[in-house]
Amino acid sequence: MDGPAPAARYRSHVATTSTPVRIVHFSSVVRQALVDGHGERIGRVEDLVVHLGAPHPPVVGAVVRIGGRDLFVTIGKIAGLGDRPLVFSGNRVDLRRFERRPGELLLGRDLLARHLINVAGGRLIRANEIELCDANGVWEVIGVDPSRRRVLRRLFRGHLGGQDGRSAVVDWASIEPFVAHVPTARLRIPYRKLARLHPAQIADLVEQASHEEGEEIIEAVGADRELEADVFEELDPEHQIEFLQSRSDADAGRLLATMAPDDAADLIIEADQDRRLRLLEALPQPQRRKVRQLLSYNPETAGGLMSPDYVSLPETASVADALEAVRHSAAAHESLQVVFALHEDGTVAGSVSIVALVRAQPDVLLSAVVREIPAHVHPDWDLGEVVRKMSDFNLTVAPVLDPEHLHILGIVTVDDVLELMLPTGWRRDFGPMSAED
């Protein structure tokens, strides 16, 4: 749900004023004649100009075609946008050609029938209609209608009856437009708004969008390197490769360095063969070593699936030490469900779940709470063998042990297994999911 209709929100906002609220469809304004006070035709309204930045952008003027020229008429010189015909209330028209100014958008040319981001719903919508509101003499963009009602209005000459479906309108305060295509735009999608969404929701937006729109989203989340990496990991392989190909080796290496080693290895494998070594060399040495190890395994075996990042401590460490190690670990959250204990010689002593650690007394030694020789997999096991072992033992994290059952090579988490088991394009088949779903 996107919450109350914007008209209702706006009426609440101006409830203390005596000026009635008036809402007008953008489609009923464009292509309308502009006449003077005597009813003589001056020209035709081609578009409306708004200035972005406010929750409800103000309309600052109109682009009017007069004598074959597009001129700018400030909104203060138009008596009322809802009138037919529109009346010019000024003394004279500025004959200079219309020129865009930074931060301004044209509702028709730049926004109408284009994709917009509904941040509250976590999905893309199309601006099939734009709603304008007049309160206290100021015209503002109140919302957009993503339904097909604009087409119906044209077919039935504006007569739909009732409330005209305005409850389907999405409040503009919940919307972010794509503006990279606007020559003079200085604004970009604010990172702070996208950061409210889960990385998987942002990835859904990228996959629904065109390549240019997707690049704009990725550029916005790039303000947070960690979020950018999380979003990239959630993208399907097709989109990952698409965006990776458009980046230099240095930029691609920077992005890969922020990803989990197993995800970075998967992506390098998907890259063109003549580029794989360059991408590997662009990684920082610690990450490069981990990725190189993973690349030595078949990607659909436990060795190819595993992550080298996990938490392990000597069995003589205390429960408090283990919890502190988890608290400060940079490993992915799903990797921290289990902590491993090691003998003095570095061989595996056992494992203990994070729940068991929380329930144990802080001063108890790990050796007293770990389960010896935990259920595990081996690096050459295929996906079916891994799934069977994790299912039989209800594992969310499975350690990958060497053939001698002595050393931990890495871990396989249940989310990595699910990702391989689901069909390609499954997210698109089910559609985007909002936080409320």
**How many separate helices?**
18
Mean pLDDT: 84
Apparent shape: elongated
Radius of gyration based on Cα positions = 29 Å
Can you walk me through this structure?
This protein has helices at 6-13, 107-111, 149-155, 191-194, 199-208, 211-221, 225-234, 237-245, 249-257, 261-270, 273-281, 285-295, 302-305, 319-328, 354-359, 383-392, 414-421, 426-430, and strands at 22-25, 33-35, 41-51, 59-66, 69-74, 86-87, 104-106, 115-118, 123-126, 129-135, 138-145, 170-171, 175-177, 311-314, 338-342, 348-353, 397-401, 408-413. Strands 2, 3, 4, 5, 6 and 7 form a six-stranded mixed β-sheet that branches. A four-stranded antiparallel β-sheet has the order 1-10-11-12, covered by helices on one side. α10 (261-270) packs across α12. The protein contains 18 helices and 18 strands. The protein folds into three domains: 6-177, SH3 type barrels, CATH 2.30.30; 191-303, Alpha Horseshoe (MgtE N-terminal fold), CATH 1.25.60; 311-420, CBS-domain, CATH 3.10.580. Mean pLDDT is 84; it is low at 10-18 and 154-166. It is an alpha+beta fold and 437 residues long. It is elongated, with a radius of gyration of 29 Å. β17 and β18 form a beta hairpin. The N and C termini lie close together (9 Å).
Spell out the key features of this protein.
437 residues, alpha+beta, SH3 type barrels, MgtE N-terminal fold, CBS-domain, 3 domains, six-stranded mixed β-sheet, four-stranded antiparallel β-sheet, 18 helices, 21% strand
